[in-house]
Amino acid sequence: MKRMKPLIIAALVASFALSTVLGTSAQGPPDLPVIFEGTVSDLDGDVAAGLPVESYIGDGAVNCNNNPTETFERDGQTRYWVKVASSGQTAGCGVEGATVRFKIGDRWATQTGTWTGLRSTLNLTLAPEGPETVTISVAVWRRNVDPVGALAISTLAPGGTWQTSDWPLDMSDVSRSGRWNRSEITEVEVELAGGSTVTIDVAVWQRRVDPVGALAVSTLAPGGTWQTSDWPLDMSDRSRSGRWNRSEIVEVEVELE
User: Which partner for 244 in 60, 90, 201, 239 could form a disulfide, CB atoms 3.0-4.6 Å apart?
Assistant: First the structure.
């Protein structure tokens, strides 16, 4: 029996060591980074070599580069090569199917990638230098039947479809001058180059003094000031049902800082 004790202890130690190894193996190492590579250009052709390359997941603010990298020149073309870390390596970074945005220098690429376990070739085109502008379309609707005079607003963002606000708009806000009533704010979400989004505020104004009832549209971009369309809006277009009159389509170019 005394001879058996060392054998039992040795067996227990071996069993514990094996279970520890198996447990560690079951967890596995974190996912490896995904490599993206390709050319870099803009509307004027190739961009400079030596610009920092950054990668981001979705709307995240974490630079997910596995290590610092810059654009380089090869065969007469500017190129990039970057490893995008997994969430197991860096919190907030790649998971299967996630959208990857790329920033070269101080400009975003207009293309986005998809984080997978595979190496990807993705040629990038950079957005134009300077402030980015987007054009949204706005239409105002005025009710011809009960509730007569009720207003609604429809908006169209680039690449989207017409969206109509809940109605009737609350027009109870009065300007300081007392000459206008202003509607509640309608928010329009616009996708920018690089895949991020920005919200633009839209408001309808209705005249309280001559010409009474005239309508105008204002827009507000983040970091900007309110911009108002030419007025009064032409409200002569009538819906097929005859229940609404619709304004002319107002195309508003909004400059983003």
Answer: 239
Which pLDDT tens digit goes with each residue over 149-184? Answer: 999 999 988 878 899 989 999 999 999 999 999 999
Q: Is residue 69 one of the residues assigned to a domain?
A: yes
Other residues' Cβ atoms within 10 Å of the Cβ of residue 107: 21
- Are 58 and 98 in contact by the 8 Å Cβ rule? The answer is yes
Altogether, the residues listed in the chain come to a count of 257
Q: Vertex 214, ends 211 and 215: CA angle to 5°?
A: 155
Q: What percent of the chain has pLDDT over 70?
A: 84
CATH number at residue 52: 2.60.40.1120
Same domain, 65 and 174: no
User: Based on the structure, what is the number of domains in the chain?
Assistant: 2
* pLDDT lower than 50: segments of the chain: 1-2, 4, 7-28
- Residue 9 in any domain: the answer is no
For 216, half-sphere exposure in the C-beta direction (CA atoms, 13 angstrom radius) is: 18
**Residue 13: its pLDDT value, please?**
45
